[in-house]
Design goal:
The protein is mostly helical and about 260 residues long. The chain has five helices and no strands.
Length: about 260
């Protein structure tokens, strides 16, 4: 098949009609363009021989020129063929552009998928970081709460220790007063004993006392001694009680 037949198979029916009309026009133009070659006239007997050679050479050169012109005209394409070729070229360019656009779309879809995967990975990493941050914040809050609780306990312990110290100071001040009173009582007892000794010595020189008087004196001595002993026991028990309280509170603070 020739190139013209291939072009007609590819074209649409409307273009085929246009091509048929163009071919008919080209045939008419070719018929009009047809050149009739003039036959050289027979030389007369009067003409000499070099003139006949000149006419034959001229006719040959004319025929050659005409053939070259016809060949050049056949090589020049018609306007419709040029339009068809430009249309085909446009279609081919559109197809090429579509192919390029398709390739660009494929590449962009691949890039979008890859970016989507990376975005998912980054999202998972971000969620993990957020969870870790939340855990750290929770632990920090718990630690701060525990630290505040420990601080409150320490403040309470300090207040209790201060109160215990005040109680001890007050107790010791009371004990000092009691000790002073006991010392006074002992001094009074000593004076009483001295007076009794003086009385006994004085009465030994005199007549002896009666039994009732001696019993009274003994009962007074016993009562004074009992009072002194009871005060001493009370003082001793008070000191032991406060020491036990202090030891228990210190043990509780160390356990906390």
């Amino acid at each position: 098949m020739s190139s013209k037949q291939r072009e007609t198979t590819v074209l649409r029916p409307s273009l085929k009609k246009q091509q048929a009309q163009a071919q008919a026009r080209s045939k008419d133009s070719d018929a009009k363009r047809h050149v009739t070659f003039a036959t050289p006239k027979l030389p007369s007997f009067k003409c000499n021989l070099p003139k006949q050679q000149l006419t034959s050479d001229q006719s040959i050169s004319k025929s050659r020129k005409q053939k070259s012109v016809d060949a050049h005209r056949k090589r020049i394409p018609s306007v419709e063929l040029v339009e068809l070729r430009t249309k085909k070229n446009k279609h081919n360019e559109q197809i090429i552009r579509l192919c390029e656009a398709q390739e660009a779309l494929v590449k962009s879809s691949y890039v979008i998928r890859r970016m989507g995967k990376e975005a998912k990975e980054q999202e998972t990493a971000a969620t993990a970081l957020l969870q870790n941050a939340v855990l750290l914040i929770e632990t920090d809050v718990l630690r701060s709460f525990e630290a505040q609780k420990i601080g409150d306990l320490l403040d309470n312990v300090e207040q209790q220790q201060h109160k215990i110290a005040q109680d001890l100071c007050e107790g010791t001040s009371g004990y000092n007063e009691k000790i002073a009173s006991i010392e006074k009582a002992l001094a009074a007892i000593g004076k009483c004993n001295e007076m009794l000794d003086m009385q006994f010595t004085f009465e030994e020189n005199k007549e002896g006392f009666s039994v009732a008087e001696e019993m009274k004196l003994l009962s007074t001595d016993i009562e004074t001694r009992n009072t002194l002993y009871n005060r001493y026991l009370y003082f001793y028990c008070k000191i032991m009680y406060f020491t036990l309280i202090v030891v228990c509170k210190l043990a509780m603070t160390t356990c906390i």
